[in-house]
Amino acid sequence: MAQNKITILVVEDEVDFRTIMTFWLESKGYSVITASDGRAGVEMVKEKNPDVVFLDLNMFGMDGVEAFKNIRKFNQEIPVIIISAHIGTPRAKEVMSLGVSGIFSKEEDFEKGFALLEIALKGNKKLKGRI
Amino acid sequence: MSPIAIIYIITAVISIVIALVLFNITKLSAQAKMDAERKRKEAQGLNSGSFGNKPLKQAILEEIKDLVDSHQRRQEVSEKLIDTFGKELEKRIDQNTHALSKKYEAIIQEEKHNEEITWKKYKKVLIDKKNTDAVIRSIAEGLVIVDAQGKVIMMNPAAEKLLGVSKKEKMGKSILENLKEEQLVSLVNESQNKDEKEIELVSQKDDTKRTLRASSAVIENENGQSIGMVSVLSDITKQKDLDQLKSNFISNITHELRTPLVAIDKSIALILAKNAGEVSSAQEEFLSIAQRNIKRLSIMINDLLDLSKLEAGKMKVNALPSLIAFVIEESVGSLINWAKTKSINIEKKIENGLPEINIDSDRIIQVLTNLIGNGIKFTPVNGNITVEASLSSEGKAVMISVSDNGVGITPENLPNIFNKFYQAGERVASDINGTGIGLSIVKEIVELHGGKIWVESVKGVGARFIFTLPLK
Lengths: 131, 472
Hints:
The complex is a heterodimer.
Chain A: E1 7-11, H1 15-27, E2 31-35, H2 38-48, E3 52-56, H3 64-74, E4 80-84, H4 90-97, E5 102-105, H5 110-123
Parallel strand pairs in A: 1-2, 1-3, 3-4, 4-5
Chain B: H1 3-29, H2 36-47, H3 56-64, H4 71-138, E1 142-147, E2 152-155, H5 157-163, H6 167-170, H7 185-189, E3 197-202, E4 211-220, E5 226-235, H8 237-272, H9 281-311, E6 320-322, H10 324-341, E7 345-350, E8 357-359, H11 361-378, E9 384-391, E10 397-404, H12 438-448, E11 453-458, E12 462-470
Parallel strand pairs in B: 7-9
Antiparallel strand pairs in B: 1-2, 1-5, 3-4, 4-5, 6-8, 9-10, 10-12, 11-12
Helix pairs in contact in B: 1-4, 2-4, 3-4, 8-9, 10-11, 11-12
């Protein structure tokens, strides 16, 4: 299956939520790599060149907004979906205006997250013909 | 001439002279402070022989010239007369002088006494004033008293410090003059209202940034005319900072509470979706219960977060042109499964061709979810909920209502239904509970949009919540 080749990076400092995300995405047939903070996430994008990034907004140290800006410095193509506990915050609005693929609220059902993921994957030029 | 006649004449003359003298004394006695000694000398002057412009002896001799023939006799008579008259006069003057000096002394005494009383009263008033001044000076709150024209008539040191002005500069001048903090202008403008009121004044300058609370009351005289205004100023900067700290704390704690809830919720969701393997029907049922309660907890936490935002004035409305039909669809969609568990039918009646309105659709969905959710809570099994939307009669707003045929609200509960922490009436079912802040948040959100919300209800028949959203 073409999907099996797709690698998703989950950048999330909450270990429990990282585990849940990993389990969920793996259950959908994706290959998942993880990073536990913004800095490590940026490095992971550089090194492993994943197909999509789930990036937590509220992280200690380098947060989602900063990590996104850093990723965009060297990679303008990779779709990034922001994960946030509360999407109404000013920081969430700021990151939306920067051109992320979407925001997945932690309170929403997985279906919504999956819909966002599909849109992001379709928009990824690198994946053309693979999905 | 017979001796009787002589005595008669003498008596007559003495009477005349005494009358004249007494007339003079009466005149003199009008001047109470006149020296008594001087009067005595005057009297002695009379005794030694002067009366009017003529010497006294001469005057007597002339008077008795026709009555007494002998010159020597006339001399004797006149001397005797003078002697008798002198003695009598002296006696009367003494009496008079004594009486007068007594009177004078009494007057002096009384005046002294009055003066003492006045002085005592003055001293007491002075002490009272000093005490009052000291009290006013020592009040930690600023006190400013202005007259009916808004001119300062009193100001304590705390007020000087708070307003950044000196009393000398402000006395008799309008409080507005030379006021460094422009925001304080509202202190006077706001005070046009007769009732006591509190206003908060925030200084914009960074170096003196602080919040003052002014509590003002109009001073009225006995006739009810306003003669000025007294304002008590207090610096509530610290209180505001504490409020901010509290607000930040609530915001942080709700985030911290939400994180584990989300992890639990998502874990259960994964199991229920059978991503982690098969689930028996009993397991599915209990996991559903767990999930439902987690959702409830999340809603409560979100309400608390909203409340802290509203209290801090931080809830912002991101208004974008939206279709109310879509907003209603979203709200009903999220609750339809819950309604089904109670076999409650949700009907939508949306007027065709409603214009787009500028709203924060997430917030209006929150309002509708709350109102419909309440409807589900308070409506028995097999009940009906109707969500309607139409243009208001003036065409200036969209009117949205949520009606149910549930337990309704008692008349005594109606006025308080939108109050914070208020919960109406008895709990009729296990799922009727909550924090009592839902409707207060709903009201705030509607008002932030410039709309109004009200409720109509008959106990036992149902309730209808109506709110408006202005088109512009």
